[in-house]
Amino acid sequence: MEFRSPHPLKPNGVSGVKESWRGRSRADPATFHFKKKITLLRTAILAAVTILVYPPVSAQGQAAVTRTISVCVLSSGTLKEVPASYDTRTGDTLVTVSTGPVYFHAVYPNDANYAAGHAWYFKNNTLRHRGRRYRKYGLPRVLGTSEVARLSSTIGTVPLFVETGTVELPEVLYVPVRVGCEFQPYQLEPETRTH
């Protein structure tokens, strides 16, 4: 019995074209691997974006254990409380928008309105307000929306706050650090007298 090649021009069925990938010839193995990596990267990015914005559906048979909470955010320069859901099983905080529940940080990110995104905050730079210097004082603290009032001054894009009811030159400025009404106090430096 004689073996007959399915390809009439090449012996034993060997053609000049190597395996194909998505219908394309891959004569160059480096090109094949590069294209494969690009496809995997695209898939990973799409999956990451989907995971960042839309929460996973709870596993079948497991009831989600959520608590309704209120989270303080800085929105358009104003402090406000936003209702959210906290999943005690996964630790995720979700907020409901018109399309359904999404991760809280996708709707209310720690953006340029918060000091945590600026180098001057981490470098412990002093702040200037009304010609006076203020130095970082202590650790950040959580304050309620009614405990502070916004000043018209800003440090770049970050608004400044003072204790509610302050009318004169404030002894302490409060800078929003991140979502959750976390503020860093800055205390007024004493004036130095020259003799």
At a glance:
Helix content is 17%, strand content 36%.
Describe it for me?
- With 195 residues, this protein is of the alpha+beta class.
- The chain folds into 3 domains: 22-53; 66-107, no CATH class; 115-188, no CATH class.
- 17% of the residues lie in helices and 36% in strands.
- The protein contains 3 helices and 13 strands, in the order ββαββββααβββββββ.
- It has helices at residues 29-53, 104-107, 119-122; strands at 20-21, 24-25, 66-75, 78-87, 93-97, 100-103, 127-129, 132-136, 141-142, 148-155, 158-163, 172-178, 182-188.
- Strands 7, 8, 9, 12 and 13 form a 5-stranded antiparallel beta sheet that branches.
- A hairpin with a 5-residue loop joins strand 4 and strand 5.
- It is flat, with a radius of gyration of 29 Å.
- The chain starts with 19 loop residues before the first strand and ends in a 7-residue tail after the last strand.
**Unreliably modeled segments:** 9-21
The total strand number stands at 13
Distance between the termini: 116 Å
Write the element-wise H/E pattern from the N-terminal end onward.
EEHEEEEHHEEEEEEE
* Percent range of helical residues: 10-25%
Structural class of the helix and strand makeup?
alpha+beta
Average pLDDT, all residues? 80
Biggest sheet: strands, sense, closure? 5 strands, antiparallel
Strand content: 35-45%
